[in-house]
Design brief:
Layout (H helix, E strand, L loop, with lengths): L2 H17 L4 H6 L4 H12 L6 H9 L6 E9 L9 E11 L2 E9 H7 L10 H6 L15 H14 L10 E5 L1 H11 L2 E3 L2 E3 L4 H15 L9 H14 L7 H13 L3 E5 L2 H10 L11 E6 L12 E11 L6 E11 L10 E10 L3 E6 L14 E5 L2 E10 L4 E9 L2 H8 L2 E6 L8 E8 L4 E5 L11 E8 L3 E7 L4
Amino acid sequence: MTRRTTTILCSIIGALLLFGYGTWWLVRQARVDVAALNFVATKAFDHRGSGASSAVIPALLGMETPRTILILFLNNTEIRPGGGFIGSYGVVTVDHGAVVSLFTDGTENLDRAAIALAPIAAPQPIKDHLIDRWFFRDSNWSPDFARASQDALTFYTLENGQQATAIQTVVGVTPEVLTTLMKYTGSVTAGGKVFTAENITDLLEQTVEVDFHKQGIPKTERKAVIGAIASELVSRIKHISPLQWGNVLGDFERLIDERHVIIFDRDSKIQNNLDMLGWSGRLKSGTPDSVMFVDANLASLKTDRVMERAMRYDVFRDAASGEWRGRVTMRYKNTGTLDWRTTRYGTYTRWYFPADTKFLDATGSVKSHKDKTPGAWDVTQEDGHTVIGSFILTEPGETTTVTIDIALAPSVVAEILNHRYGLLVQKQLGTHGFELTVHADFGTNVRTATPSESSKNFGDRAYDWNAMVTKDTMFDISFESLH
């Protein structure tokens, strides 16, 4: 167990208890009982699902019986389908809101010990672009957090992780949780540097990966600064004013909506309530159409920190065939350079559409990091979706454009023929915002639309919408009879 993983996970656990369920400080110092906690939970969150939060929160806090939780630290500067590379993890037992036991470690230690075990073949893209074997650290290959959590638990158990059979809950968090926490704790000075909510991710990485050489700090001690930061943050959590709780709850809701905090539970009743609340990071079906892109940074360092993404989705009737079609145009812009943190960006990207969507054509992929000839496109079925994927490469300072042409699923066409169109654009776990453009041309006037177009686009035959999105976005459009 390293000093870094211990202290980071301690901070995350404190943050989770603060933002996720109420805090151990409230429970122990204010002596909040289950009834009071239920009342607060209901008032704060039950607009999402009747009675769901009051059923979930006390259980996750261990208010009735102790609960053992696997916490996955999802590094979203190296994005993976399940929210980010699992660089470290913790196993914590919570009893009446208090942490009664804690074990933390880096995933590389668990995986290193597993090399002697029978190998598990990795998904083909991991084998092609990263490593032949599949380990705990790479287990979150599914964009559905429940499935990713089940896979993580399988690997954790096979690799003889501590308390594997006792774990009831899996919680995934990104660094956004820590930066949000620092809004309430304020800046922290450690090792002669001032760490703030705005700079902690980059400055901390710079400190422990580069600056320790210049300061003459031994490599084994380079991460001691994290202990000083974490200790101060945990101490300050206890003193956050109850007057701030309205803002705290609002920030937690934002972190949930943006998928920076995600929760899975083995108990089916609790999981159903998590689904109802929208806390579970599930892969959803469309309304009836849907599109979601899922990136997997493979051997590209922490380059997601400098990537900009934009997706356009066009819906139209093909003039030649009369077929209703969709077209995805995806733009990747790499604003980084070749340095110790960032490099050329290689991602195996999957686009999820409704089942029975027909793949027509695609451009913009390559075979590998080294072979830039056009890559093959994989078309599969997964969890009730048609999935189209390939490897995309973007050099520093360059932009890559990908296009995918599809024939809309019969269920989507039936809705259009009924003068309505619904679309769900789902955001990948752990990612930040991206620019989204939706252009739908039904060949007849649009009657109503949610969200509304800009007023300059009113009264024509197409629906046009553009914005930065940081959470799932739903569209509902009605239009006049088709010609």
